[in-house]
Amino acid sequence: MYVKKFGLSVIAISSMAVMAACGGNEEASGDNAANNAGGNNAEEANEAADNNEGANSSADEDISGSVSIDGSGTVYPLMSRIAEQYMVEENPNVSVEVSRAGTSAGMQRYVEGETDFANASRNVRDEEIEEMEANGIENMEFPVALDGMTIVLHPDNDWATEMTVEEVESIFISGAISDDDTVMWSDINSDWPEEEINTYGPNENHGTYEFFIDELIDGQDLKDGTNLQQEYPTLVELVNDDENAIGFFGFGYYENNQDALGVVSIDFGEGNITPSLDTIDLEGDYAEYTREVFTNLNVDAARENPAVKDYARYVFEVADELAPETGFAPLPEEQLQEQIEEVEAIN
Predict the structure, then answer these.
(1) CA-CA distance, 347 to 335, in Å (whole number)?
(2) Which of 91, 123, 147, 185 has its CA 20 to 30 A from that of 331?
(3) Which fold is adopted by the domain 3-145+293-344?
(4) Where does the signal sequence lie (predicted)?
(5) For residue 280, what are the CA distances in angstroms to 182, 208, 231, 272, 275?
(6) What is the pTM of this model?
């Protein structure tokens, strides 16, 4: 057994994509997405296959069965969108179930052999690799897209829309500004209101939490009283309800809720940069807050179940097209093609 790594190391997403998971509950295992992506899936998919004159490799091979996916709430909108399109346009004979328990919770299910894929907004941990080895699971870790950590505000906040990276992070770090972690806007800038700042973010189940703690604030403790939530739509609502809120999560949840949220343009040392599909890049202006997001593939599941292998291939065929639709910057085409070839080589 080995673990192989590849590549570099909402309230308002579409209703069909939302229904691909467990009714919005990120802690549950999820409903069958095939039953929720539209009532005419089989008919639409057959028409698409006819139009493609038999080019659909899945249909040609009569692939059927089911695929199970759990993990990152950040990656969920992208993977559920891919699953929806796969079942409607590529192969209506395969049921793809997408859930969003969070990176750590989803990885725990995966290392115990309960799912075929685990989406993650961080790399696999050493202890997870050890568990997979103990359980005889051979894993392939693939980047699927690029995400930008986004700092969000109440939409009426017109004073904190531009900050340095040091100012942003000091608000979230315990003891950085005040020993008792009571931080006022005026502590950051004397011209700002003398009102206490309330901090928000995803909880410990999420790779976004881990990325923020481990990579952005160097393992320091979050400010006492930070409101951590399991569900991203809940975070959007909380920030929208609190004029003194500041929170962090992936770019997609901001982009799809811009009417409900404000955003911080961050100065990393060379002027303020607002996260966008144009600035999110590992080597671009927003690189410091850019990360890869991943899916992990159970190799034995791909060997034993043609539907799993076929779906994995499809993920990388359409990721560049569907990533921007769900708030992610796409990976380079050549990287995605290499990953398709790695999947096709599984036998």
Answers:
(1) 21
(2) 91
(3) D-Maltodextrin-Binding Protein; domain 2 (3.40.190)
(4) 1-20
(5) 32, 16, 23, 14, 6
(6) 0.82
Cα–Cα distance between 113 and 135 in angstroms, integer? 8
Whether the Cβ atoms of residue 24 and residue 85 lie closer than 8 Å to each other: no
- Is 263 in contact with 289 (CB distance < 8 Å)? no
Closest C-alpha among 315, 99, 106, 322 to residue 207: 106
Q: CA angle 212-216-219, nearest 5°?
A: 80
Distances (CA, A) of 148 to 143, 249, 266, 308: 14, 8, 12, 29
Give pLDDT tens digits along the chain (347 positions).
Answer: 334 433 333 333 333 333 333 333 333 333 333 333 333 444 444 444 444 444 444 444 589 999 999 999 999 999 999 999 999 999 999 999 999 999 999 999 999 999 999 999 999 999 999 999 999 999 999 999 999 999 999 999 999 999 999 999 999 999 999 999 999 999 999 999 999 999 999 999 999 999 999 999 999 999 999 999 999 999 999 999 999 999 999 999 999 999 999 999 999 999 999 999 999 999 989 999 999 999 999 999 999 999 999 999 999 999 999 999 999 999 999 999 999 999 999 99
The encoded tokens of residue 102 equal: 């969070």
Tokens of 300: 């034995």
What is the amino acid identity at position 55?
A
CB 120 within 8 A of CB 107: yes
* Terminal-residue alpha carbon distance, the chain: 15
Q: List, by residue range, all CATH 3.40.190.10 domains of the chain.
A: 3-145+293-344, 148-290
Alpha helices (runs of H) in 178-243, residue ranges in sequence order: 185-188, 207-211, 232-241
